[in-house]
């Protein structure tokens, strides 16, 4: 299990053993940077499968019971649907107060920070909010992939209240599973993710929903080209998860939608008026931006 690696945390508890949490847990076990990887989930079947498949060492469906066994310096990752994270925080309140470090994998940080302040009266020093930018349309314990986080970004959003040692430990755990860790302000995170992740998912859902209602839907999907399949793939993601995300990041997402609506309206006007010059300008500007983005991604891959 890589026992030559330095131990970062004695115990790590992963709450939620789907793709995100389960992949983190299994990668930690392989890395050998913690002595014991624990798990907690509502499903007894999932817990049994996680233990049998070597995703975790041990676990308990009762989060309060297993949290009571954690000690100062141990770490908890909450990897449950976005709107359920505050409820998990409430159960972990006593653990946080005695120095257990709690982090999360939710896609929205502002809503969670606000609810944590309501629960604790302030943001607890040992609460380190974070977001791994990784995943797929697959979900559940059967989708666990120990390589999920390799070369993928994880954004941590510390505040002035965040304990530096707690922040460092969470960063080290993510780096131990191959992630590229960076830091960002909470509001900046939510605005950026609204534009780069939440908006594309909403558009994919909307496009598939609209086309599925057309009378010629069978031919539409039968003859769909690669570009259509690539873009709409994300509409196969978990609806409940994305419901939670768009509700939690409502304001930032609406702002992104408004910006997109303006651009789409301008494009529609150019098409309707057969304004070739404006169409070429829009398409050319978009291509230039996309090429620059692709070049940045290629450079990042080369640097690894």
Label this structure with key terms:
13 helices, 304 residues, 12% strand, alpha/beta, Rossmann fold, 6-phosphogluconate dehydrogenase C-terminal fold, 6-stranded parallel sheet, 3-stranded mixed sheet, 2 domains
Notes on the structure:
The protein has 304 residues and is α/β, with parallel strands linked by helices. It folds into 2 domains: 9-184, Rossmann fold; 189-273, Orthogonal Bundle (6-phosphogluconate dehydrogenase C-terminal fold). 54% of the residues lie in helices and 12% in strands. The protein has helices at residues 19-31, 44-52, 63-67, 85-91, 93-97, 110-120, 164-176, 186-212, 217-222, 226-232, 239-248, 250-272, 276-303; strands at 9-15, 34-40, 58-59, 75-78, 101-104, 127-128, 130-132, 153-156, 180-183. The protein is elongated.
Brief account:
The strands form two sheets. The chain has a six-stranded parallel beta sheet with strand order 3-2-1-4-5-6, sandwiched between helices. A three-stranded mixed beta sheet has the order 7-8-9, with helices on one face. The chain has 304 residues and is α/β, with parallel strands linked by helices. It has two domains: 9-184, Rossmann fold (3-Layer(aba) Sandwich), CATH 3.40.50; 189-273, 6-phosphogluconate dehydrogenase C-terminal fold, CATH 1.10.3660.
